[in-house]
Amino acid sequence: MWQNTKASTGGFVTNLGWAIILPVSIPANMASTLYIQLRMIAAIAHICGYDVHDDKVKTLCFICLTGESASDVIKSTGVQLGTKFTSSAIQKYITGEMLKSINKSVGFRLITKSGSTGMLNLTKMVPVVGGAFDGISTNIIGNTARDAFISN
Questions:
Q1: Which whole number is the average pLDDT over 105-116?
Q2: Smaller CB count within 10 Å for the chain: N or C?
Q3: 60: which residues sit within 8 A by CB, 6+ positions away?
Q4: What span, in angstroms and rounded, lies between the C-alpha atoms of 75 and 125?
Q5: Cα separation of 92 and 67, whole Å?
């Protein structure tokens, strides 16, 4: 909840300058939102008892940053986990070579995501819309992390 509020506030504040400071505000907005989201995912992992310094847990955190397309990212690397990915499946079935492949896929996905987010920022230029977009995307990513790390 608070992470969504922080991301929404960041999106609102960075869009206050409108077109005048757009070249500076878009990268600042993306960096701050990404920082908030990654910190939230790591906190969820830590609360659930995972070592956030472990490479597999780090990879799972990066996968969670892709939001609803997390399962697609894993499947695109050749790993078949079913309809949902979970931390236990990642811990069990992922090898070091697969980690590299998954990290590469996540990197490409985040680059394309930032590109589309940047284009959205160019078209919106309204602080309320920017804040709402960042809050909603942070909520989706938080739900993905919760589903991945919290076992039933």
A1: 66
A2: C
A3: 45, 87, 90, 148, 149
A4: 36
A5: 22
Q: Please give the pLDDT value at position 79.
A: 58
- Please report the DSSP string for 48-103 in residue order: TT--TTSHHHHHHHHHHTTGGGHHHHHHHTT----SS--HHHHHHH--HHHHHHHH
The residues, ordered by sequence, that sit 6+ positions from 136 with a Cβ below 8 Å of its Cβ are 4
Q: Which residues does 20 contact at the CB level (< 8 Å), separation at least 6?
A: none
User: What's the rounded Cα separation, in Å, for the pair 98 and 100?
Assistant: 5
What CA dihedral angle connects 146, 97, 55 and 65, to 10 degrees? -40
Contacts 24+ apart (CB under 8 A), 76-84: 76/105, 77/101, 77/102, 77/105, 84/147
pLDDT band of residue 44 (cuts 50, 70, 90) is: very high
DSSP of 106-128: HHHHHHHHHHHHHHHHHHH--HH
Burial group, residue 113, by CB count within 10 angstroms (0-12, 13-18, 19+)? middle
Residue closest to 145 by CA, chosen among 83, 105, 85, 79: 85
